[in-house]
Design a protein that fits this description.
Blueprint: H1 2-18, E1 29-35, H2 54-62, E2 64-70, H3 76-85, H4 89-92, H5 108-114, E3 118-122, E4 140-142, H6 160-171, E5 178-184, H7 197-200, H8 205-226, E6 233-239, H9 259-262, E7 263-264, E8 266-269, E9 278-285, H10 289-297, H11 310-313, E10 323-327, H12 329-334, E11 339-344, E12 347-351, E13 356-359, H13 374-383, H14 391-402, H15 407-415, H16 434-437, H17 439-452, H18 456-469, H19 474-487, H20 490-503, H21 508-520, H22 524-537, H23 542-554, H24 558-570, H25 576-588, H26 592-605, H27 610-622, H28 626-639, H29 644-657, H30 661-674, H31 681-696
Parallel strand pairs: 1-5, 1-6, 2-9, 3-4, 3-5
Antiparallel strand pairs: 2-7, 2-8, 6-8, 10-11, 11-12, 12-13
Helix pairs in contact: 6-8, 17-18, 17-19, 18-19, 19-20, 20-21, 21-22, 22-23, 23-24, 23-25, 24-25, 25-26, 26-27, 27-28, 28-29, 29-30, 30-31
């Protein structure tokens, strides 16, 4: 009996350790939902009449809505770092996308994890992948994108419903108090809401994305409620920044500090703790979210830039303080002047080559700046309390470009519009004012569309015009260089990539493309130098690895080529090009099984690689497996139907391996049709005549 009682008590003890906290020590849960690229004025509870946001509106009805919540920077990663830490981008030295949260900084996840919370994050875009440093403190950090851009390429984002389902699946297994962060990316460009939102919002796809996201939030809340996880849960919903939608010439976001980019929704709901229909009119910042959440939950946190808004939620007055904002995106992307600003009461001041001053509640169309305005003097004094990017911080901001582990991310960020650009000093004289340069973004987009559509000359003319006005525009140089490469204008391409490498020597893609230009110009030594430079920056860069190995292979330097390919494959670099090269090198070395592995892996990574299928066919033939050889060559010929060599090989296989003269004749005729004047044309003609004569006899 005592033994049975001991077992029962042990089981009870284990259950208590894994389950909710003991009575009297119940910890409230925290659900943080971040809305990427979501303008406050496109949400119903913020006055948008055409919005379809019943879930967000309902949360505001049951909780507190902050009328004037503002981002400090109009970019995803810095904003989320601020949300999770309570510190400003200027304090964190994390001012642009693609950087990394420095070590030693506490976040909501690290603080709550120590308190015994289960912590889970489910993010929907590559911009917030775990390598950016926000994963610390999370038991689960799910950052698996599934949706590629319309222009092709690797997956970069995840639709809201998939993110919701992933979060609910993990929560079903979580125990104890929880901190769940769910990030929705859908309103970010490209706007492609699913049905029925695509049809309903055909003329306003951005609003369709918000409506779809709102519905997905409803599914998340419904699912958590069904799991019994919403009781005693503080729900915080906040946008990270807004979207331009063409205002002030900005199609998306990142460059300007206008209200469309900085004014975001912020709603907090906690049944029994936050009074419904509460509206907080004060100007607050994203840095205030972490200290507010911890204060409401009764959990002490570190001293940070932000302040708790608990008193404001309760209806008390608080002393207003200036709100800092900045954007270095235009500077790092295009070499334009950075922007820094202050919101102080009714005024917003933006420090730029042509400074701006707005009574922002009345709109931002009329610049009221005059050098002697008292608001300007006070704003400049307030702005001086926040550090600009000095030399040390600029070095920190660019460090990520030199880190090989960041290069694949950088490529994905480029396709999302987050491109690191000029290395010019931000305080250098003569930098373009973004107000004067913003039209260049549209020109770059137009040039990209034209070149993608095959109108390379027209695209190149636009890019040349851009570079005449903005010679430090690295994206324009890169695009123009690629346009020239595609046209076979290799000398012109070389000039573009040389300038790109001069401006951004730490960008691996510049060295790669310069190497390709040199290779096409017949300068193998300089091509090899640039490929190796790219690999020095990014040892896992698949394109540089395969380009260098191909160059070495073409020179007969097989051992050196193998020394490039084999370690990369062993390190797990997934590239169809590399595995094709592995197969070729191993085949030349007589390692049949290893060669077959390389070709098969290549074909699994890229089913359209007909060379791999053909090589597998050759190996099968050498092993006496005629049927298998035929299958592989037929697959290769389906992918490349005009390849005369594949067709002729199939003819020979059917003739000599299967004694099927009719099939052989068909393939020989197709081979001759594919290449009637090729080197094998005479032999094919003889074979066809012989088979036709045999068939007629």
């Amino acid at each position: 009996m005592l033994a049975r009682l001991a077992v029962f008590l042990a089981a009870l003890s284990l259950a208590s350790a894994a389950g909710p906290a003991p009575e009297g020590k119940v910890s409230p849960n925290l659900l943080l939902i971040t809305l990427d690229t979501t303008r406050a004025d496109h949400i119903g509870c913020y006055g948008a009449k055409g919005a379809a946001t019943p879930i967000l509106d309902g949360l505001a009805e049951r909780g507190a809505r902050f009328e004037e919540a503002h981002a400090h920077v109009p970019l995803t990663l810095p904003s989320h770092a601020t949300i999770l830490t309570g510190d400003l981008p200027s304090t964190l030295n994390l001012r642009v996308n693609g950087m990394k949260l420095k070590g030693g900084v506490e976040t909501l996840a690290t603080i709550l994890k120590v308190k015994g919370y289960w912590t889970g994050a489910f993010v929907s875009a590559v911009v917030l992948e775990r390598e950016r440093g926000l994963a610390r403190g999370f038991d689960v950090y799910d950052d698996r994108p599934t949706l590629p851009p319309r222009t092709g390429g690797p997956p970069e984002e995840r639709p809201a419903d998939e993110t919701t389902q992933a979060a609910l699946s993990a929560m079903a297994k979580a125990t104890g108090p929880f901190f769940l962060w769910v990030h929705y990316y859908d309103p970010h460009y490209e706007y492609r809401p699913p049905e029925p939102y695509a049809s309903k919002f055909a003329k306003a796809p951005y609003d369709g994305e918000i409506a779809y996201m709102d519905a997905s939030i409803g599914k998340l809340l419904e699912g958590l409620r069904a799991q019994g996880r919403l009781a005693d849960t503080l729900v915080v919903i906040v946008g990270d920044h807004g979207e331009g939608l063409g205002e002030h010439g900005e199609k998306q976001h990142g460059v300007f500090l206008y209200e469309y980019a900085m004014h975001v929704p912020l709603i907090m709901e906690w049944e029994g703790h936050i009074k419904g229909r509460t509206v907080v009119p004060d100007v607050v910042g994203l840095c205030d979210i972490a200290p507010t959440a911890l204060d409401l939950m009764g959990i002490p946190g570190p001293k940070v830039d932000g302040k708790s808004l608990k008193a404001l939620i309760g209806g008390s007055q608080a002393k207003a303080s200036p709100l800092y904002m900045e954007s270095y995106h235009g500077y790092f992307t295009y070499g334009w002047a950075p922007l820094r600003g202050i919101m102080d009461g009714p005024w917003k001041y933006v420090d730029a080559p042509r400074p701006e001053l707005y009574a922002w509640r009345e709109g931002e169309e009329k610049n009221q700046y005059t050098p002697n305005a008292p608001q300007v003097a006070s704003a400049k004094k307030a702005l001086s309390a926040f550090p600009a990017a000095d030399a040390g911080e600029r070095a920190e901001m660019e460090k990520f470009l030199k880190d090989p582990s960041n290069q694949e991310t950088l490529k994905q960020l480029m396709s999302l519009g987050y491109i690191s650009g000029s290395g010019t000093r931000p305080d250098a004289p003569g930098l373009l004012d973004p107000k004067d340069a913003i039209g260049i973004e549209a020109e770059l987009a137009q040039a990209q569309e034209l070149t993608s559509a095959g109108q390379v000359d027209k695209g190149a003319q636009i890019l040349l015009s851009v570079l005449k006005r903005n010679p430090q525009n690295v994206p324009a140089l890169s695009m123009l260089g690629m346009a020239y490469l595609n046209q076979g204008k290799n000398q012109e391409a070389k000039v573009c990539f040389l300038e790109q490498v001069k401006l951004k020597p730490q960008m691996d893609s510049g060295h790669l493309n310069l190497g390709t230009a040199y290779k096409r110009l017949g300068d193998a030594a300089l091509a090899e130098k640039e490929y190796r430079a790219a690999l020095a920056l990014n040892p896992r860069m698949a394109e540089a690895l395969s380009s260098l190995a191909n160059l070495l292979l073409s020179q007969g330097r097989l051992d050196e080529a193998r020394a490039v390919v084999s370690p990369a494959v062993a390190a797990g670099v997934e590239s169809a090009d590399l595995y094709l090269l592995l197969g070729i090198l191993e085949a030349k070395a007589g390692n049949t099984e290893r060669a077959r592995f390389g070709f098969a892996k290549c074909l699994s990574l890229d089913p359209r690689r007909h060379e791999a299928a053909a090589n597998l066919g050759r190996i099968a033939y050498q092993l006496g497996k005629t049927d298998e050889a035929i299958q592989y060559f037929e697959r290769a010929s389906r992918i490349a139907p005009r390849n005369a060599s594949y067709l002729a090989t199939l003819g020979s296989l059917y003739l000599n391996g299967k004694n099927d003269q009719a099939k052989a004749l068909q393939y020989f005729q197709r081979a001759l049709s594919a290449d009637p004047y090729g080197p094998d044309a005479k032999n094919l003609q003889d074979m066809i005549r012989g088979l036709q004569a045999a068939a007629g006899s």
